[in-house]
Amino acid sequence: MEFNSRKIFGIFIALSTGLLVVTIFFVLLIQAPPSNFVVNNDILTLVGKSAFQAFLSVIFSLFFGIIISWSFNRLNFFGRSLLVGLFAAAIVTPALVIGLGLINVWGRSGFINYMLEYFGLRPIGSIFGLHGIILAHTILSGAFVATILLARLNAIPSRALKIGQSLDLNAWKRFLVLDWPAISGALPALGSIIFLLSFTSFPIVLLLGAGPANQTLEVAIFSAVRLDFDLNSAVQLALIQLIICFTIILPSIFYLPNTIVAGMTHRQKWHDSKSIIIVQAIILSVGSLIFLSPLLSVLYDGLGQNLIELILKTSFWNSFFTSFIIGVLSALLCLTLALALSFAQVEIQNKYGKAALYLPIFAFMIVPAVVLSLGLFILIRDLGISSTIAAPFVLIIANALLALPFCVAILLPPIQAANIRYSKITKSLRLSGLRRFKSIEWPLLGHEIGLVLALAFCFSLGDLGIISLFGTDDFATLPWLMMRAIGAYRNNDAGSIGAVMLVLALLVFWLLPKITKRFSNAKT
């Protein structure tokens, strides 16, 4: 009975989420019927520019991730675990914060130009434009790639390393014989995910795009709704984006790698030559500087007198508590959905049933945030519901669903392992429901549950896509307040808001898994 109840609940969740995707698709289709579709040169140019930007982001992110993970895997130094953790935290770092940090470092009035002028050198050009967008994507996605690939490199068996060492493999031969086979299997899925995230990039392109020349479909949809209230054009762009995203993600939908844990952080027993060690140290030093400098600049600018002035404003506290409450509720909802779907995946034995359950889970990788927001916006309007009343519920549900694919990827492997190890004991003791979860699964999943809660909370905290169509003067989250401050040239306020978001995201990502693991009393 227990197994059936888990199946039924998981299938119900999968059908509900799938129905929501289908509903949004038909709402968009009704709003802009195919007979009204006009795919003109402007739209084709927009798609082409978006795809080109995303392609370059994939190339640079994969290259950055490969060389950083390779260097991390070889080097041992004080603070290595902390640095690995910071790279792992890139997935929850708000994109707006990275964008603002790049402006602080590389902008016309940024740190780099200040130093160049100080030494009498010619300043560099503006960070705004295609190169700025690609740099921001490379920092975020490249750190994400490095985290995934490091886990794979750390998982190379010790026996293989000993054999390679006995054969006196140099650094290049080891990479070809041992490292490349370990990491290459993850690259197609990672490339697809990065392309998808870059193709649908919203806050970074909005902040660094420097106008229509570099905008993505996501930004064009936002502009059509917020600036022109041209729903017909917005819906056409949204449907085109849905079709493209579906085509991109479908081939790799079943190969999504674990997205958070960097794996072992100890040094493996391998001796590189001194020249290679120097190269690795340079790569890691430069890569870490590129990755950390925007974050440090936001903290430096934001955690000072400007912060004191900001916290005296009522608008800040209203936005802070709105973001916090929505983030907490979104995280709890996402955890509930992820657990239900993961438990159902374990209990379903038929491979076609498993595949059918996967489709709704990863559907929200295909539906970008602004497209989801637009579909819900139109649906609410057609139902005659006030967007002001519906906005908090929309943000909670939408943010939970957007984080769901990543959270299932975290929970499913340990749940499968626990089921294999303890299924017989569970049956013999007739454990079911909450008793089974409390006695068997909770002690084993404490860390992963904390990761899921932290990830979903931070995704919600940094969201600009959903709030972009529902934000008002009276209803604002921290990213929306930050974007309004940037638009009004209140850079001091924007910097302090960014610093608060960054500190909160890093603290939650670091502390919450430790807290849940401790309370779970795991003894594994």
Strand percentage, roughly?
Answer: under 5%
Q: For the residues shown, what is the average pLDDT?
A: 84
Q: Find the structural class using helix and strand composition.
A: mainly alpha
CATH class assignment of the largest domain = Mainly Alpha
Task: Give the biggest sheet.
Answer: none
Count of helix runs: 21
CATH topology of the largest domain: the name is: MetI-like fold
Q: In the CATH hierarchy, what is the architecture of the largest domain at level 2?
A: Orthogonal Bundle
Strand tally, please?
0
How far apart lie the N and C ends? 28 Å
CATH homology superfamily name of the largest domain: MetI-like
The SSE order reads: HHHHHHHHHHHHHHHHHHHHH
Morphology call: globular
Radius of gyration: 23 Å
**How many domain units?**
2
Helix content: over 70%
Low-confidence stretches: 257-266
What are the SSEs and their pairings?
Blueprint: H1 2-31, H2 41-74, H3 80-88, H4 95-106, H5 111-118, H6 130-154, H7 158-166, H8 171-183, H9 187-199, H10 203-208, H11 217-227, H12 231-249, H13 274-302, H14 305-311, H15 314-347, H16 351-366, H17 369-382, H18 387-429, H19 433-461, H20 478-487, H21 491-520
Helix pairs in contact: 1-12, 1-15, 1-16, 1-17, 2-6, 2-9, 2-13, 4-6, 4-13, 11-12, 11-17, 12-17, 13-21, 14-21, 15-18, 15-19, 16-18, 17-18, 18-19, 19-21, 20-21
